[in-house]
Amino acid sequence: MLGWTCPAPLRDQPRVVMGHGGGGAMSAELVEHVFAPAFGGEVLAQLGDAAAVTLGGARLAFSTDSYVVRPLFFPGGCIGDLAVNGTVNDLAMCGARAAYLSCAVILEEGVEMAVVARVAQAIGAAARAAGVEVATGDTKVVESGHGDGIYLNTAGIGLVPAGVDLRPQRVVPGDVVIVSGPIGAHGVAVMSVREGLEFGVEVVSDTAPLGSLVAAMLEVTPDLHVLRDPTRGGLAASLNEIAGAARVGVVVNERAVPVPPAVANACAVLGLDPMYVANEGRLVAFVPRGHADAVLAAMRAHPQGAGAAVVGEAVADHPGMVVARTGLGGTRVVDLPVGEQLPRIC
């Protein structure tokens, strides 16, 4: 405790709890007070989805992520394609086209080889679909009862085009906030299978690679300010992270946020807010107002952005805070979640 940069306890938890992995305030505290001071470094301090670094005169994006989703297979995907798409998308949020991935596989003793093969096939198929090569990897096995079938870690690198500078610090009041499509499908799809819930229609995960969508947006203008893929913590967490880093306020038109009816109904039954539910094939963009219409049109012309919508704007008021205008004409604070509504969804 005495070695921490801040003496405040991590939500008064002396031990790690599930909320520390949820992408909300507890995750942020864990990184801020434990990992960042221990690791140090200016690049890490940016705390983006991926790191943009210069190496040998080339500007690269570099990212890593781990996947512990339960169950391994869910409507619309599995842990294999989720791992590929997740890392490809983190690189895309820097404007980079992913080039190479690594894949580390941790297997639990006793898992069926047919399951391992099925996941491996999904990894290969997703990599080919995203136009990326799995160039290196690793395999480990843990004793029965010390894992959950299969865990994956993927890391990736890609080139950032000249003139592209995507980071929260570039956001200014007046920027238009655009989401690339309906939110919440991934988290609800995983939860429905895990808990054996039925909502009248099958909710399918939105997991998908976003590199080509981002490329289409950058063709309109390289002057996009920031992109995020709202995974853990959902759209609410991404907006709060951007608002905090940019020191601007964000106003969201709640009725403009696209939520599929099945997701809205499922969230109503489960007591969840769709704004906090994870996505794996969506992005949120802060775009200069003068380019917003053209960028939105390019997004809607792309298969992964057909449902794109303007949902709000950056404002000078209440810096660091996200508020939503409700359908009744009032406003509510959309805060950073403390832990997570749905654990183990990525």
UniProtKB/TrEMBL annotation:
Residues 49-160 form the PurM-like N-terminal domain. InterPro entries: HypE, PurM-like_C_dom, PurM-like_C_sf, PurM-like_N, PurM-like_N_sf. Residues 173-318 form the PurM-like C-terminal domain. CDD domains: HypE. SUPFAM superfamilies: PurM C-terminal domain-like (SSF56042), PurM N-terminal domain-like (SSF55326). It comes from the Bacteria. Gene3D superfamilies: PurM-like C-terminal domain (3.90.650.10), PurM-like, N-terminal domain (3.30.1330.10). Belongs to the HypE family. This is Hydrogenase expression/formation protein HypE. It comes from Actinacidiphila epipremni.
